[in-house]
Amino acid sequence: MAILKVTFTKYKRNKLAQILWILNWLSVVTGVILFSLGLFLKIEIKKRIEVIAKGEISSTSNVLISVGLIVCVINFLGGKICYDCSDVHRYRRWRLVLLPYIVFAFGFTFCLLVGAFMCYTTRKELEESLYLGLREAIKFYKDTDIPGCCFLKKTIDMLQIRFQCCGNNSFRDWFEIQWISARYLNMASREVVDQLKNNIDGKFLVDGVPFSCCNPSSPRPCIQYHLTNNTAHYNYDFLTEELNVWMRGCREALLDHYSYIMRSIGLVVLIIWLFELCVLTGVRYLQTSLKNVPLDEPELDSDGWLLENSFVESVKSNLNFIKNLGKADQVSNVSELPNLNKDI
Prior knowledge:
- It is a single chain.
- The protein is mainly α.
- The protein has 9 helices and 2 strands.
- The protein is rod-shaped, with a radius of gyration of 33 Å.
- The two termini are about 55 Å apart.
């Protein structure tokens, strides 16, 4: 028994073919949108690749770019097929191609779901990559004269200013590394020399942060050094007063930034997936309704359905039909060979 059977007149079949032709061209636009979203995500990741550890973060953008291109090709072909199906004579050239096209297109829509799923499931991997990348980048903040690292100071400063953040997890991360270059340390100062000697690794550590951590909205001038020393500043209490540096870590800020982008892209991909399913459902009705029209009587009404039998039986019959296409071509080629025994 056919599932979701609908009866079509010739007029309804032609109108359905015309509507699907327009919708397939709209689907080409959705493919361009997918490609653009993937490219946008790839560029956003490339902008801050210095603070992202190497990983498969860019795989989501690559999937969206690939899927977008394939969607354009599939729906361009689908538009051509639906346009020809408005005329029963032009439909004959696509009669054997239409069902394999539908099966392939339905299978490919699964890739859209994969792309949307990746947008919602890469948060943990992204968080780990940001943590490792920021940790390594901050270590080289002071190395402005070392090739390959000289740009990291500017990168970190611009990042902290742009996203209003400080350090990896918090501003305390700067207390654990030497972020002041040795060239700017006054080695004649006893305080500096003692601190270098007291540190096991010979590092100059201070309870201070770079200028880019300062909050310009703070009512008092920025306190960059001796943040945890109440006696170093007038009318200052480290435990009770809100610091005038950014409290949020850059890992959290960047994670929220990329998560928002990926969630938005994932929602768009899901909407496109639903739209593609609707278009392919219409193409399926068009294919079955044209299949049931006698070629010598195109004016007759015909039935169209989503599935001819149960889901399992329909899948088996459609797969067998596709497999037999090649055999049918081979038989037709053999039948066209000349009869050699006739001349003997």
